[in-house]
Specification:
It is a single chain. The chain is mostly helical and about 325 residues long. The chain is built from 15 helices and no strands. α2 packs antiparallel against α6. It is globular.
Length: about 325
């Protein structure tokens, strides 16, 4: 008798995802790093395993959990092997994220094919150049996606949602815009009698993450350095400082909007094709609650990119 695990791997959906995952991320498994920024953060994570203190001995503005992802690999493996193990972990994260996206879209549309299409798009888009580096931007996707899945439950586990949002922030600070979009979408677009208590529990979860991070750096006598590096210096940093509004708008369109239209064209085409074919079992999926939440999410993310002035594709 075959086990349930073997039965799960025999599912056609999972086989398609595994095949696409191998095609998109297999070459990355054999590289130590994708670009110099990834190489710098990995080398700094290795230095942390040798006793150096992040932000006090190592200058950085990236949040602490981006390095916490790496340090166990460099603590347990050789510096030559650790990057490959990290790349393998990244591939597994993409697979898990795709399966989560599949469940979300399948629940929204009541359509198995739409769920599989969403999962395949997820894998394909995270196989693009901008998603191959082990940045906080890449890792933030997964706690945010998981929090969206938790919010779809009839009774969301708000404290866990807050933990995920706090963790996402300490992977990349701009995750605050994602969390704000999801919170706003839930508060204003979903009928829920216990929204106030839910937000309070989420705030407690976020505060717990902040308290744990603060306690860690306070214990090591580096709380001031960490606060300055992750908050003040990061907020002060501008990739395009003091640009006139028209030039900033032109750069924003050139580096963000046009690449998004190009790189995410499969998403736009898939949505248009599904609407044209009338395949949605729930016809208000793009005009109802789900659609408004996704538009709010996208809008706040674009505002976040404009606000921080970091016109990088990733």
């Amino acid at each position: 008798m075959r086990s349930r695990r073997l039965d799960a791997f025999a599912r056609p959906d999972l086989r398609w995802l595994l095949a696409l995952l191998v095609l998109t991320r297999l070459p990355d498994l054999f590289s130590h790093f994708h670009d110099w920024d990834e190489a710098a953060m990995m080398s700094e994570a290795w230095a942390m395993t040798k006793g150096q203190m992040l932000y006090r001995d190592i200058a950085q503005i990236h949040p602490v959990l981006n390095f916490a992802v790496f340090t166990p690999f460099f603590a347990w493996l050789t510096p030559q092997a650790a990057p490959h193990a990290i790349k393998a972990m990244n591939a597994l994260l993409v697979l898990g994220g795709a399966w989560t996206a599949r469940g979300l879209v399948r629940g929204w549309t009541r359509d198995r094919d739409c769920g599989l299409a969403a999962a395949l798009l997820f894998v394909a888009l995270l196989g693009r150049d901008w998603a191959l580096s082990s940045y906080g931007e890449f890792y933030t996707i997964f706690p945010i996606l998981l929090s969206a899945a938790l919010l779809e439950r009839e009774r969301p586990a708000w404290f866990s949602v807050g933990l995920l949002w706090g963790g996402a922030f300490f992977l990349k600070q701009v995750a605050v815009f994602d969390a704000a979009a999801l919170a706003g979408g839930y508060l204003f677009l979903r009928q829920a009698p216990s929204r106030a208590s839910g937000m309070a529990a989420a705030a407690l979860g976020i505060g717990t993450v902040f308290a744990l991070v603060a306690a860690y750096f306070a214990w090591h006598g580096a709380l001031g350095d960490a606060t300055d590096s992750m908050f003040l210096r990061a907020l002060d940093y501008r990739a395009v400082p003091n640009l006139p509004i028209l030039k900033r708008a032109a750069l924003f369109a050139q580096m963000i909007l046009l690449p998004a239209l190009r790189d995410f064209s499969p998403c736009w085409l898939a949505a248009a094709a599904a609407l044209a074919a009338g395949r949605f079992a729930a016809p208000d999926v793009l005009t109802g609650r789900v659609g408004r939440t996704l538009l709010l999410w996208l809008g706040l993310d674009l505002i976040g990119v404009w606000f921080v002035g970091k016109m990088h594709l990733h």
